[in-house]
Amino acid sequence: MFSFFTRQRLIRRGLASAKWRRRLRQSEWLDSLKCGGLARWSVIGALALLLVSLVSGDCEQPEAAQRLLVEFFVYVLSVALLWMNHRSVWSDNGRLLLLLGTLVGHVWAVRFVAAGAQEAAVPSFADWTGADRQQFWSLMVPYALGPMLISVLLGQRLGIVLAIFGSLFGAMLNGGLDARFLVISLLCGFVGALTTRDVRRRTDLLWAGTLVGGATLVLGLLLGRAGGVFWEQSVLSLDKLAWQCCAAFGGGIGGALLISGILPVLEGVFRITTPITWLELADLNHPLLKRMTLEAPGSYHHSLMVAQLAEAAAESIGANAAMARVCSYFHDIGKLVKPEYFVENARHGRNAHEDLAPTMSALIIIAHVKEGVDLALKHRLNREIIDVIQQHHGASTVYFFYRKALEQQAAWRSAALEAGGQDEEPPEVKEESFRYRGPRPQTRECAIISLADSVESASRSLDKVTPHKIDQLVEELIQKRLAQGELKECELRLSELTEVGESFKRTLRSMLHTRIAYPKPVSSSGRSSRVERASSRG
CB neighbours of 119 closer than 8 A, spacing ≥ 6? Predict the structure, then answer.
């Protein structure tokens, strides 16, 4: 309250800026809740009690202790597997809650359909026996619900992990271990995880649900869960088989529709961006991008070229290409605040830095990162995009203005020596004043965008574009970033960095191609007409 009035008083006196810039605020309480050990073990313990009580159900007293012990050790095994092989999920309590909570929800859905729904009356099928109804509802069990959801949100490997442990707990629901249920659940869960590996459209989920339904039906027929075709001597009833087909495909497609509906909610709650959302964000009609086309057209074109470079490089090493493309679109939105101070937006050959000191010019250039974060927060962009805006320059130096400041300092000293004023010292040039505030790139995608940004900018300064010059430029820039330590905090390996460089070279050769200089047609008067000159430009 008091700081607000103090700020307003300084603004009226001209001693403070009236502009309020949005910043990312860090909270120790939220950090401890997200990564703290106490919160992690609380989540694990609470979900363990919920899952064990759900699986145990109403079991006989003599077997209760044994079943509880088995279920407890299976749960401990799942948690140990996450701790050993999936450290990124283990260190993030939100994702750990999502994974284990989905496991509990998956087991609950399986129990509801397999144990509860099979007791429901089916008035339309009065001639059906209890076994017929049991077969019908067993085909509607959502075997792949959890694996498909986790595969879309957290990746295929974790989807397979959930398929394994979801199948184990589902097979123990009715006491003992149902081997046929375990096999069907495992195979359908694997099909669901594999078919949702690279979901880019909502319709891909429906296709995955259809394949899961087909797998459920085939396995049900083979293992005697449906129809009695192979293992019973009864006459095959086509109408019952038709309804069982509807049940199998209805269960798979229904699970896919459910996932499609709750996916946006889970993305917002757990701050996860799926490939579907990345493709939605790739729409160039976003208000910020439309502003760039009008106010900073040079920066907009630069961002498109960086996106092309980054997407191809990310695909070459198996990184998130859609994320690299979208984040490249927005990485320079901070230049919208003062676009004329960036060379790609200069018009009519005017240099806005001519009348500014190098320190002031560097301050304006460096500020576009903070301005970009401000605009990103205002327009509610994803956290991954904000991280790329913050990190794409790392802790590098605005070298052009730093060198200009050193040259001015040397000229000042020379002039002072010639004038005899040897005691007068020029202003000190500190490299920190010309350095971005960081942090350095933390992910592979951010490192690729950072390299693509520098490569695309430097390629515009080539006098004559040749494959050799392009190769030399890319290798020099990558080696320079390595020497400066800009890539030491990301997960980019040297072998991947080599492949990224090769991708940059291939893309630059296609982007900076040369064209044949066509001769201009000459009219009978000896001069080419305006129409001929226009058409000769191709």
Answer: none
- In angstroms, the Cα distances linking 372 to 152, 363, 391, 485, 507 are 30, 14, 11, 24, 27
Can you tell me whether residue 365 is helix, strand or coil?
helix
Region 416-445: what's the mean pLDDT? Answer: 79
Confidence of residue 2 (pLDDT cuts 50, 70, 90): low
Q: In angstroms, rounded to a whole number, what is the distance separating the alpha carbons of residues 427 and 410?
A: 10
Residue 67 — very low, low, confident or very high, per pLDDT cuts 50/70/90? confident
Query: For residue 146, which amino acid is it?
Result: G
In this model, does residue 426 exceed pLDDT 90? Answer: no
According to DSSP, residue 397 is labeled: B
Whole-Å CA distances, 335 to 252, 297, 302, 342: 48, 11, 12, 8
At 350, the amino acid letter reads R
Percent of the chain residues past pLDDT 90, beyond the cut: 43
Q: How far apart are CA 527 and CA 523, in angstroms?
A: 6
Output phi, psi for 518, to 5 deg: -75, 140
C-alpha to C-alpha distance for 121 and 123, rounded to whole angstroms: 6
Q: Which phi and psi angles does 396 have, rounded to 5°?
A: -75, 175
What letter represents residue 367's amino acid? Answer: A
Segments making up each domain of the chain, as ranges: 28-272, 277-398+435-511
Mean pLDDT for the chain?
83
Give the residue with greater pLDDT, 22 vs 531: 22
- Write out pLDDT tens, residues 446-469: 999 999 999 999 998 888 888 899
Dump pLDDT digits (tens) for 253-276: 999 999 999 999 999 888 888 888
DSSP string, 13-62: TTSS-S-----PPP-HHHHHHHH-HHHHHHHHHHHHHHHHHHHH-S--HH
- Fold for the domain defined by 277-398+435-511: Hypothetical protein af1432 (1.10.3210)
Of the candidates 265, 276, 273, which has an alpha carbon nearest to the alpha carbon of residue 101?
A: 265
C-alpha dist (Å) from residue 2 to 5, 9, 171: 5, 11, 63
Sequence-distant contacts of 52-57: CB under 8 A, at least 24 apart: 54/104, 54/107, 54/108, 54/111, 55/107, 55/111, 55/169, 55/172, 55/173, 57/111, 57/115, 57/173
